[in-house]
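Quick one - inputs below.
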Amino acid sequence: MSDLDRAIEQLRACRLIPESQVRELCYKARELLIEEGNVVSVDAPVTICGDIHGQFHDLMELFRVGGDVPDTNYLFMGDFVDRGFYSLESFLLLLCLKVRYPDRITLIRGNHESRQITTVYGFYDECIRKYGSANVWRYCCEVFDYLALGAIVLGASSELEPTSNTALSSMPIDDSELETEVLNSRGEVTMSTYRARQRSSSDASTDSRNISPPRDISAAPGQAAAPSRSGAPGTGASGDGNGSAATSRTGAVLCVHGGLSPLIDSVDKIRLIDRKQEVPHEGAMCDLLWSDPDEIEGWGLSPRGAGFLFGGDIVKQFNHLNGLSLVARAHQLVMEGYKEMFDGGIVTVWSAPNYCYRCGNVAAILELGEDASGGGTVARSNGEYGRSNGIVADNRVVSPGRRYRVFEAAAQDTRGMPAKKPVADYFL
Amino acid sequence: MANGPVIRVLSTLDSSVLHTFIEPSKKIHESQDVSTFLTSKAYIDIMTWVLQLNRSMFPLKVADGTTQTWTLNSDAIQYSAQVRQLQRLLSKLEDIIQEVPPDTGPRRFGNISFRRWTEVVESRASDLLKECLPANLLNMCSSDEGATAETELKSYFLGSWGSGQRLDYGTGHELSFLAFLGGIWRLNGFPKSGPGVEERAIVVGVIHPYLELVRLLIKTYNLEPAGSHGVWGLDDHSFAPYIFGSAQLSPAINDNDLTPEEGSLLNAPDPGGVANAKIVERERQTNLYFSAVGFIYDVKRGPFWEHSPMLFDISGIRAGWGKINKGMIKMYNAEVLSKFPVVQHFPFGSLFSWDRDPNAPLPTSTVHTTSGPQARPVAPDSGHPSVAAARPMPGAGTQALPPMGSTAAPWAGVRREGVPSSTPSGTTRVPSALPDTSRMPPGPMAPTRAPWSAQPPPSPSQDGNADVHTKAPWAK
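Output:
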């Protein structure tokens, strides 16, 4: 068993690893993350997760419900730390898994993965308390600077394979396909929605479902940017019939912690950011990590004091211009664990149940299935893949089938009471 | 009595001297301003007021050798007419909850109806104050058109109820209520009695019901903690009950005794009781500390040591409730009064003045910033001011800040190297056509806005951006 596997085992048991090992881990993680682009490409199937906030036992529940790494391919949309009691255990475990199975888990940056925020919302205090110095906090913050800013999910299926053990599901009507499904933590279907199968004879993208040679990811950017009617960043579709690439009619899914930015009108612009720094107080990088969708038109000031509010028109336009079918983001507590807005153009996924021990919310993860036709089977790339500049997307882009697994906070009975730690200086 | 220590109390206005009232306004605009605040008259007055109230809650040695305690249900505490008026005010505010039931529509966390509650309170504030305070007190003014006593009191009154805009409540709002009561004291609104007599009526008769009302608001409208350290803070919302509650369980004193710094009242519950739900349930009926812990049990699910590790560790202190009380005072000074995000919204007028306290030490040099929250090294103490002055307030400890060169803690009073520039980078990022719908209630506290933005934050849209969300700590 390697040191890394031992560390994973130890962290899974909610026991911290020595400072020297944290240092080594963070060094390895940085070497790995520096190779990733600002926008990581991820193939479906993938399970998308929202905020964790140091709720380690609930993270274990998430793995129980969603499957373990590396069996399940995971994408975590940031906010691993702060607020909870186990930010260190949670983040270090995810980081170990990233180093051990780099192609099976993707971590992107949340607004809490920042020096300034962690000194206010608890992670700094936790590091001091658990390690006795700020060293580990510093190592972790250096890793934060290298985390990708977003991810593009490719090759997701528009249709879900119905869950078999479903008591509730009614037989789908003819010519309809399963679009969304909500499952509880016991795997029982609690809700399903169907949509009409779109089978227009002129639908070239439907026809192209059977042709899907893996795209050469080393293709020169210029080639990928070839004019096209249906292509889009991330989807890899050129749709020009030359056979070089094809994909399902399902558009790509952009995953980002917060949301959109008035300074970012294309996914490519995200790729141009120099991300290896502390999260700035303003600008595109800040907005991606801080913004929230809201029932407004256009852009609005955020009550958070960073990022913006953006309305449905902004999402629709952004998705259209970029050939996206969906923006998946986290960043806001939703009592039901997930919340779709703007005709399904954006979804909030929240993965911290009973947030802060008191919110009484359930958590969710979002599973996107693999297109059965085999479209979009591209390997993970380092972000230079799928460049396209201002390509107008085919407006027939269909959103992917979405399976939400909803779960509650982990039982607490197994957690024993620890010894009291020395108190703060005020009381000495 | 004559040989006892001089108990410092908040000074009251001399009615024979013309007093100039000032419409309170914010003065703490940047983190550096906190060090100026710590040398202001307002700071010394707030600390004096807190210590005066704190001192009054220590059990009293009675001549017959017994001890008089000041439990929440004590018959020995006499409520003055003014205290009863304030109780009536609080119950009127509670009644407004019935008028504005929580919204049942879709929501994230905080309930949008709380915004309406704050609006109702604001619209009735003048009437409520007139019903509660004598006209000759409220109408005190320096000229026909200038600010009145009511102007100043109303500012602190309205800041006491959490933010209707952000749907949160924190220690800054609590501070505003303490200032509201301190303002009434300064205006001679409370009757003169023996040492501590009126003060303990204020703590048990007004501050405790205030805290109960705030808890009701928090539960009714799901108010979120304003800017918290997550589990690593003392409490999501409150601080005062931990100060006054630990005083209730500290050793008994005479009026002449120094305030004890360790030991406990005979038969006081063990501090470790906070981790035991049954003990908490029993003690919360009589004690402010346990009533605050009891509220945590009401709203949180999970092991106590996990969601409240700070209180859990404090519960292991062996040196008694006096030790805990002293620590709480130090911590309040450092974690509430010295924290930019908390005090930045505190408005300064004539009752709590931004003017420099002539006895204050020179402002802490911004060069000495290696660690520790920015805390004024002098605490006015009931008892021996000179001794207190020589005792430095706590500095670093577990609150040590990241080292130089890294980003400064936003709540620190001092700007450090490496703070991301707050100067706008020149890019036009805020769409200029945005409507400024913002009307920030004068609430103090609250996680803050971006320092670069000139406008106050906007009010969230209709459905409320009301979840338990993170605010940018660098914002003002």
